Amino acid sequence: AQSVTQPDIHITVSEGASLELRCNYSYGATPYLFWYVQSPGQGLQLLLKYFSGDTLVQGIKGFEAEFKRSQSSFNLRKPSVHWSDAAEYFCAVSGGYNKLIFGAGTRLAVHP
Amino acid sequence: GAVVSQHPSRVICKSGTSVKIECRSLDFQATTMFWYRQFPKQSLMLMATSNEGSKATYEQGVEKDKFLINHASLTLSTLTVTSAHPEDSSFYICSAPLGPQSGGYTFGSGTRLTVV
């Protein structure tokens, strides 16, 4: 069955610190992987996606993610977090045109 | 880029009434539309998949008679919450697949439904 696991429900970091949000997936075919960010009461914004090719993917707002097939992981990273990065982050997987399956989300808090 | 316009953005209705949410693809044809529901501080849960000209496919546990989905044209998909109750209060989001070459998926901006 298709599934996405985000082990960390809440993460708190200090502004300027590095960040890594974990994502593990289970998918029977070639996965298409996504990271989205959602601010309170808002819709979703795509941070980055992986379809094929280079396993290190660069996204918007200084985020990057690395696809590791052997670990079924697609962790999101940012070298230096800004206060404006505080939000909910969702990892998601699909097979291309198929339904998108979301993880439970990780709520990021940023301390000044 | 491909845009899905979702309306209304917020709606408050009385318990027992019905509410219709519309998602229009503005600059492309959406053969398929996914409908998600998001309760506060939770993830997006897929409710159903609508395909133009055919019956929607509902996820397990979603009442098809309560959440009516219509996809009568390639640019319009609607979700009607019938006989709404306070427990139906949620954030509803539609999404259309664009395919890997076009960036994956486009999302509506969401509808905040409050049933009083």
What topology does this entry show?
The complex is a heterodimer of chains A (112) and B (116).
Chain A: E1 3-5, E2 10-14, E3 19-21, E4 24-26, E5 32-38, E6 44-50, E7 56-58, E8 64-68, E9 73-78, E10 87-94, E11 101-102, E12 106-111
Parallel strand pairs in A: 2-12
Antiparallel strand pairs in A: 1-4, 3-9, 5-6, 5-10, 7-8, 8-9, 10-11, 10-12
Chain B: E1 4-7, E2 10-13, E3 19-25, E4 32-38, E5 44-51, E6 57-58, E7 67-73, E8 76-81, E9 90-99, E10 104-107, E11 111-115
Parallel strand pairs in B: 2-11
Antiparallel strand pairs in B: 1-3, 3-8, 4-5, 4-9, 5-6, 7-8, 9-10, 9-11
Account of the 3D structure:
The complex is a heterodimer of chains A (112) and B (116). Chain A is mainly β. Helix content of chain A is 0%, strand content 52%. Chain A has no helices and twelve strands. Chain A has strands at 3-5, 10-14, 19-21, 24-26, 32-38, 44-50, 56-58, 64-68, 73-78, 87-94, 101-102, 106-111. In chain A, strands 2, 5, 6, 10, 11 and 12 form a six-stranded mixed beta sheet that branches. Chain A has a four-stranded antiparallel beta sheet with strand order 3-9-8-7, with no helix packed on it. In chain A, a hairpin with a 6-residue loop joins β10 and β11. Chain A starts with a strand and ends with a strand. The model of chain A has no long low-confidence stretch (mean pLDDT 94). Chain B is built from no helices and eleven strands. In chain B, the strands form two sheets. In chain B, strands 2, 4, 5, 6, 9, 10 and 11 form a seven-stranded mixed beta sheet that branches. In chain B, strands 1-3-8-7 form a four-stranded antiparallel beta sheet, with no helix packed on it. The mean pLDDT of chain B is 94. In chain B, 35% of the residues are buried.
